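Researcher: Next sequence.
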Amino acid sequence: LLDLSSKSRALSKPEAESLINSAEELTLSLKKQLVSAGFRSPTINSLLSRAEFNLKQAEESFKAAQYPSAFGQASIAAAAAKTGLNQLAQRENLLREIQNWKERYDGLAKAAQEPEILELLARAEKALAKTADQANKDPNSDKTIQTLKEAKLLVLESEEQLSDWLARVEEVAKNKRSNQPLIDRVLPNEQKEKEIKKQAVEELKRGN
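Model: Next structure:
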């Protein structure tokens, strides 16, 4: 403690001024990014308020030539602003991940026909929407992470079931192709292929 006290007394005006400038830049950056994102988070707003308060205290101490105090207050302001910026970055990363999984969901929704798969996808859509809502409130909460995990598992399960369904459709279609006249097998027709796939799907549905 005596050593820290000695270092504190030795802090110079340039050191305090440099850290105040850094804290000011970080605080301004956090404020701008919050406005730009249109994001209101009680946690991050609290960090911004703390950074602004301690920055003001640092500036007042600096004007009074209390450089160790100014340095300490600026340190607290910089730390609060950095934490807020990190949490904003985590939110952006989370929203990008949600968007990636939403795109996978969209691809599945276009291809799926099976009621079981559609039911899974409906649950996945709700989970993704819930995660996006929570990410805008508290992106770092355990609840948000857990909801995203559930959504990802539902999408993955849907992908697996769709892959299995398409494989079954292809197997039935393959058998139907083998029963086609030789000319149709040698010179496949796009319209005919669509009809075969449609028949395969209908046959599977009747079988279920």
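Model: Residues 67-111 form the longest helix (45 residues). Confidence is low (pLDDT under 50) at residues 1-8.
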